Amino acid sequence: MEEILKVAILQTSLDNKAAWSICSVNRPKMNAMEGVRVWNEIIHTMDNYVNLEDTRKPDVILIPEFSVAEQFEREIKKLADQTGSIIITGLDFKVTGNNVRNQALVAIPYRWPHGFRKSRAKTFYFGKHFPAREEKKYLEDCGKDFEPCNEIYVLDAGDYGRIGLAICADFYDIERYALYKGRIQHLFILAYNKDVKSFLFLAESISRLVYCNVVICNTGHYGGSICFSLKEKEYQRYIYRHEGANLFTSQIVELPVKSFKESQKAKEGKGYKAAPPEYEVYD
């Protein structure tokens, strides 16, 4: 196992009021100008990552829910090739007839991480099961129905651990965590969430229940991105925590892998909080 997994939290400042208007002719698709503005934020950060030394580059790059407009979706695959990093990003609404899906894209470069630059990334999508109240109301006002994703995904990153994936309101899904318990080392949440305090408390609670590292990549419009690990000493647990609204920012954090995996197997801590009752590791 690798010692650490380097994760970039790229917090875009997408403004939902500018992006999605009930009066828009193109509803529920994102406003083109707001999509371009946010894409420029993403490109600015990616340029910095491309020019980093391989030892300093992030292994995974997280971009919040809804961040990438449809016209830029194909570019994510190219950016994964250029950075050599897995990119996990939220996308604009996917509309098929009267049904609308909220999805995220995962782009994995060949021979990850940072192996060969000129290679084509593989991609897959995962979706949201539970819409937020405002999201559901907006789609109903557009005359559309939300189409839930009923699958639960685990990304096997080999020596970097297994990763659970979820979008925003699915962070409240208790059944999801019963499945993830003992099967993952990291949990990544892409969010567009204004209730940042609830997610702050949930990050620690879910980390203890599932016994995993938790990263929330939230929109900079509301702030509240978090990286939490179950370190034995309290001051070490919040690896990263961002507060403040209307801010575009990015940060590379380091998640423990090897030492945490050993703690999961031992169930007794070893530098971490002890595992919850009846905890079993499933290989």
List keywords for this structure.
283 residues; alpha/beta; six-stranded mixed sheet
Bin the strand percentage: 25-35%
Gyration radius, rounded: 18 Å
Tell me the strand order in the biggest sheet.
Answer: 7-6-3-2-1-15
What's the mean pLDDT score?
92
Poorly predicted ranges: none
Topology as a string of helices (H) and strands (E): EHHEHEEEEEHEEEHEHEEEEH
The structural class is alpha/beta
CA-CA gap between termini? 14 Å
Overall body shape: globular
Question: How many distinct helices?
Answer: 7
- Please outline the major beta sheet: 6 strands, mixed
Total strands: the figure is: 15
Percent range of helical residues:
25-40%
Overview of the molecule:
- It is a single chain.
- With 283 residues, the protein is α/β, with parallel strands linked by helices.
- The chain has seven helices and 15 strands.
- The chain has a six-stranded mixed sheet with strand order 7-6-3-2-1-15. The chain has a six-stranded mixed sheet with strand order 9-10-11-12-13-14, with helices on one face.
- Strand 11, helix 6 and strand 12 form a beta-alpha-beta unit.
- The longest helix has 19 residues, at 32-50.
Structure, briefly:
By secondary structure, the chain is α/β, with parallel strands linked by helices.
List the helices and strands and how they pair.
Blueprint: E1 4-11, H1 16-19, H2 32-50, E2 60-68, H3 73-83, E3 86-91, E4 94-96, E5 99-101, E6 103-108, E7 122-127, H4 133-141, E8 145-146, E9 154-156, E10 162-167, H5 174-180, E11 186-191, H6 196-211, E12 213-218, E13 226-228, E14 238-241, E15 249-256, H7 258-266
Parallel strand pairs: 1-2, 2-3, 5-8, 10-11, 11-12
Antiparallel strand pairs: 1-15, 3-6, 4-5, 6-7, 9-10, 12-13, 13-14
